[in-house]
Structure formats: C-alpha cells, structure tokens
Amino acid sequence: MKPPFSSPTSSSVLRKARFSPYLFTLLAFIVFVAVLYGEDFSCIVELGSESDGRPIEKRREKLPFAIGEIEGGRCDVFSGMWVRDESNRPLYEESECPYIQPQLTCQEHGRPEKEYQFWRWKPHDCSLPNFNATLMLETLRGKRMMFVGDSLNRGQYVSMVCLLHSLIPEDAKSMETFDSLTIFTAKEYNATIEFYWAPFLLESNSDDAVIHRVSDRIVRKGSINKHGKYWKGVDILVFNTYLWRGSFDDEVKDIVEKTTEDAFRMAMKSMLKWVEKNMDPKKTRVFFTSMSPSHAKSIDWGGEAGKNCYNETTMIEDPTYWGSDCRKSVMEVIGEVFSKSKVPITFLNITQLSSYRRDAHTSIYKKQWSPLTPEQLANPVSYADCVHWCLPGLQDTWNELLFTKLFYP
C-alpha cells in the first residue's frame, strides 16, 4: 500500500499591502498559516510585496545553534509523504536501546512484523538532512536539553536518547529519575538530556509521574512556576501538552469548567510568559510539539465502526485525512498566543504527518500493568493502545524534524 503522496496544504498569495479594513484579517491568517507550517514566530511576514506580488519577509536573525539552511532552500518540512526505506530504517534497533520503557517495546511484546519501522518522511520540496548524532552531542557539550510534557513527549525524549546513546561509552553515560525529572547524562560531554513530567505544564492533579490516571483532570491557574523552577538554565526546551478537562482557580476554590480551547489558551499564555522571563533568545531555543493524533475510531478513516488501530499494519492513504480527535481550533489558539511572543518559539507540526500512521501505535504489543480480564483477551480492540507509539518508529521522525529545525531553521 502506498503512503499519501502529499499532505493537505493551505496557500494564499499576499497582494500588495494596503492599509484597509481587511488588513487585520490578513495578519490573523498569516499567523494561523505560520502555525500550520512550523515557522518561528519571530519571523512573520512584513507588509509589502515584490513587483510580482510575492510577500517580502523580514530579515531573519540567526537563531542559536543554527548552522545553515536546509538543502534545496527553505520549504515546509511538515508537508510531504512517507517513503519506504528499509535500507536506512530503523535508525536503531529496539534491542540496542535499553532506555525504552516496556510500554513502547512492541517487538519484545510480540508484534509479529516490523513494517511500521521502515518508513522515512520526505518533504515535497526538499530533503531532510540526515540525523547527525555526533553534531547533536557536540552541540550539547556543556549544555542541557529538556523535554517537558506528557507521556508522548516522554516517548520523544526516549527516542532522542536512543538516537544518541550508541556513540557514548557504556561507563560514560547514565540515566536517573528523581520524581518528575529523568536525566540522561553524557559524562564526557558534560551534557544532559532530560524529561520533566508536567502533562499540563501548569500544576495539576496528574502531576505524579507514576500515578496520574484520574477521571477528572484539573489544573491550577497561574501555577506554572511550580514546575518552571526545574526548567531554568535549560538551553534547548521542547514542550508539549494537549488533553484537557477543566481548571480550578486557587482564589475561589471552585472548579471552573473550560473548553479545550480556553484551557489550552490559559496554559499557552502561562508558558509564553515563563519563556519570555527565563529564556535568553540569543543563547537558547524553545520548541513546541503539536498534538499527537490517536487512532481510536476506525470509522474516521472509513473502517468498521467499533474498531480502532488494533491489527492495522498499513498507513492511511488519504492525503486529506484529519482525525476527529485533533482540533484545528487548538492550532488556531497556538497561533494566536505564540504570535505575541517576544522570543522565537519553533512549532513542530507533527500532527498531519502522524495522522497517517495508524500502523505505528503500540496497540496490544506492550507491557500491561494490570492482568487482562478474560473479556479483554477475547476482544483485543478493548485494550489496544492507540495513543502511544512503538520505538523505534514514528517518534524518531519527530526528532529528525527537531534536528532539522534546530540546525537548519
């Protein structure tokens, strides 16, 4: 089965700028497009155009850690197609990386095929640079890189460790966990790659890194410093967050129901305020990874009602596919908030390219922390995990895109 040959894109031609009532609508659209195409929000299009109608861009200041431009010139690296590449994939073997959590080791837990490991993401208008582990480690020498967020961001963190650790001698690396903080240390480089568990960025009732399954998830407004104190001094910071239920205000002690969009806006504003106060844009980089899609409803892609990602071994072919669990309105919120940022925040738009990959989830091939009931065993769909991803696999591509945006923004 062939992968999608293109990703859905939006385009617009900016005409010569005029100070008209439509100007602000145009600017709002530019911000939204910038979110969808992974731009740094310090580089929004200026008013004005070339003689042929193309927009003039502001001069892009060199971002920290940047070493050049992507081969083929600037392009939307998030718009492309999956190409089967068994000779160069996977980037490492599951058995070679001891840091993968048992809930992500699909081969160890009986997955009968490896087809999901053999796909490489290729942008339409350029080629991604090869992931260079030596360059990454040298860049991290004497520095800290941290992933902050939920279990999906932890998966991306583990992927990054797996991509790097083989270059480090066994006695020169370690991984330790201290409550919400996990630290991988490359001793010879005096470098750390860290993960901090903060699923909603703000203080929440899901902050226990081990026991965090609750029926009603709530967050405390204005509480980002509870976690943020552990992020200070980080050189490369990668955030994510998505799932919301509500929030509570510490002053009134009452739980206030919020829409997903409003709750997300609250967290993004708090994060942005913290970043502007604590991150030096001349020395540090901040990334935000977009929502990771789930595949819990096969009816979304024309499958049978009541089914999900279980037993799916091929990707979705429809290039316009967008699952019901991913809200484009949330993307708009990100654009709205980040467009006001005083420091560059690079948006890693992994949602669309990941949406095709119904085949890459852990499904039933993971450690089960509780014994399965006879009813579950008789119906694997009932306990298939269609949220998390096998490693090696899709999240290695996320890190290839992070690598690209870090060094070739």
UniProtKB/TrEMBL annotation:
<keyword id="KW-1133">Transmembrane helix</keyword>
<protein>
    <submittedName>
        <fullName>Protein trichome birefringence-like 33</fullName>
    </submittedName>
</protein>
<dbReference type="GO" id="GO:0016413">
    <property type="term" value="F:O-acetyltransferase activity"/>
</dbReference>
<dbReference type="InterPro" id="IPR025846">
    <property type="entry name" value="TBL_N"/>
</dbReference>
<comment type="similarity">
    <text>Belongs to the PC-esterase family. TBL subfamily.</text>
</comment>
<keyword id="KW-0735">Signal-anchor</keyword>
<feature type="domain" description="Trichome birefringence-like C-terminal">
    <location>
        <begin position="128"/>
        <end position="404"/>
    </location>
</feature>
<dbReference type="GO" id="GO:0016020">
    <property type="term" value="C:membrane"/>
</dbReference>
<dbReference type="Pfam" id="PF13839">
    <property type="entry name" value="PC-Esterase"/>
</dbReference>
<dbReference type="InterPro" id="IPR029962">
    <property type="entry name" value="TBL"/>
</dbReference>
<feature type="domain" description="Trichome birefringence-like N-terminal">
    <location>
        <begin position="74"/>
        <end position="127"/>
    </location>
</feature>
<keyword id="KW-0812">Transmembrane</keyword>
<dbReference type="Pfam" id="PF14416">
    <property type="entry name" value="PMR5N"/>
</dbReference>
<keyword id="KW-0472">Membrane</keyword>
<dbReference type="InterPro" id="IPR026057">
    <property type="entry name" value="TBL_C"/>
</dbReference>
